[in-house]
Write a structure and sequence with these properties.
Alpha-Beta Plaits, about 425 residues, 5-stranded parallel β-sheet, 5-stranded mixed β-sheet, elongated, 3 domains, Rossmann fold
Length: about 425
């Protein structure tokens, strides 16, 4: 039932109004403005029905204090014994939803209160539409930023920026309908790993923001990241098939609040820096921002471990993903030289491939980056690749005979065509077999 706070210094008015409303609404009563302020915080009523003239704090003063404290307009209806039309006009100009003259009849009071409640329901519905992302049902960008700006000022917890890795490939290879299904499922997964008291919203195509109240421990953030990754992989197999080539996953950049500040914009930038570190490491994991000094100390201590198992944990890939391994040009050079040394000892071969992209018609700005994602998803986990200039990629295919090489390259070209890339970029490739 909807709740109404009745405020009047006359107890018989409180009892009369409460009796008239009791069969349709829950009522709580206060005798003064100060008492009403305390009850409003505790009871969170849907409507305040208050006398206009009261000793100590008038009804108008109560309205002003409620609006100052709770920012949004507080639904309020005044009771007054003053029959002057100017008084009624003043009340309505101050933002009251209605006023009623004392003494009043039950039928009139109920009708007016019912009208207000119907109006509030319509307003709530419109507000929900305005604040909600229509696809996922989460808060939209403007609403979640507003909510988190307030939370970061007063609450303790962790702000998490969550990015759905390789989502663009879903739209390109499977179509936007499938992309919508993945986004909807991922939003459900995000909501499933947080509590009802936490705040979450979608701020971009595949980017989400979450504030986990009172969460400070790193292992909790890591556990939620693990669940996000496991669940989206299961969802991808369910929706796109067991052989889905897209390495979907979640990358999380987190920042503790208020340890790293209380300004939302500043915290957002720090979470973004942490997210960038995850992307640089290969995605599908989390990073917690601990300040520049803490990050420098962590970097100095990286690799320090007291046992061989500890060293293995540091060196190992944290979140193993499907598809080829994307490397920077320097790291690619190191891997290539190591691979060649290995070939000499074990009489193996590898295939070096140079992919060149040539504009066709109107070039897409993201065509080269898209090809990189297609390439990574199409090759095997034992293969590596790197970007070489603006429109070239180099790949190393390991343990590949002539037939296997042709199959791998054809898979790249088929997926590039399925992604719509051939409409803006023609891909040509050269291969070189490296032998001992």
């Amino acid at each position: 039932m909807k709740k109404i706070l009745i405020v009047d210094d006359a107890h018989f008015i409180q009892k009369a109004a409460s009796a008239m409303l009791a069969h349709k609404y829950t009522t709580v009563c206060a005798s003064t403005g100060a008492e009403a302020l305390e009850l409003y915080e505790k009871e969170k009523p849907d409507l305040v029905l208050t006398d206009l003239q009261m000793p100590g704090m008038t009804g108008l003063e109560l309205q002003k204090k409620l609006q100052e404290r709770y920012h949004d307009s507080v639904p309020i209806m005044f009771m007054t014994a003053d029959g002057d039309e100017e008084t009624e006009s003043l009340i309505l100009r101050c933002g009251a939803m209605d006023c009623i003259r004392k003494p009043f009849h039950q039928e009139l009071l109920l009708r007016r209160v019912d009208n207000i409640m119907r109006q509030l329901n319509r307003i709530a519905g419109l507000k929900l539409v305005a604040e909600t992302d229509p696809m996922t049902g989460m808060l939209n960008k403007a609403s979640v930023q507003k909510a988190l700006t307030e939370l970061c000022l007063h609450a303790t917890g962790t702000l998490m920026m969550i990015d759905l890795d390789s989502f663009k490939l879903v739209n390109d290879l499977y179509g936007h309908d499938m992309g919508d299904k993945i986004l909807i499922r991922f939003s459900e997964i995000v909501k499933s790993v947080i509590r009802a008291s936490d705040v979450a919203g979608r701020v971009g195509g595949d980017e989400f923001l979450v504030f986990c109240k009172d969460v400070r421990a790193e292992d909790v953030v890591e556990e939620r990241t693990r669940r996000l990754n496991e669940s989206i992989v299961e969802a991808a197999k369910e929706l796109m098939g067991e052989d889905c080539p897209i390495p979907l996953g979640a990358s999380v950049g987190a920042v503790p609040v208020p340890d790293e500040g209380t300004n939302f914009n500043g915290l957002y930038q720090k979470a973004d820096k942490a997210l960038y570190q995850v992307k640089q490491r290969g995605r599908h994991g989390c990073e917690i921002y601990r300040g520049d000094a803490a990050s420098a100390e962590e970097e100095r201590n990286r690799g320090v471990a007291s046992s061989i198992e500890g060293i293995r944990m540091i060196l190992d890939e944290r979140n193993r993903q499907r598809g080829a391994y994307s490397l920077s040009s320097d790291h690619f050079l190191t891997v290539y030289r190591y691979a060649v040394r290995t070939l000499e000892n074990y009489q193996k071969t590898l295939c070096l491939v140079l992919f060149s992209l040539h504009p066709v018609g109107r070039e897409r700005e993201d065509a080269a980056e898209l090809f990189g994602e297609v390439l990574g998803a199409s090759l095997r986990r034992s293969d590596v690749y790197t970007k070489n200039g603006r429109n070239q990629y180099i790949a190393i295919l390991t343990e590949t005979d002539g037939e296997g090489r042709d199959v791998a390259l054809q898979r790249v070209m088929d997926n590039w065509d399925a992604a719509g890339g051939t409409q803006s970029m023609e891909v040509q490739y050269e291969t070189l077999i490296i032998t001992p």
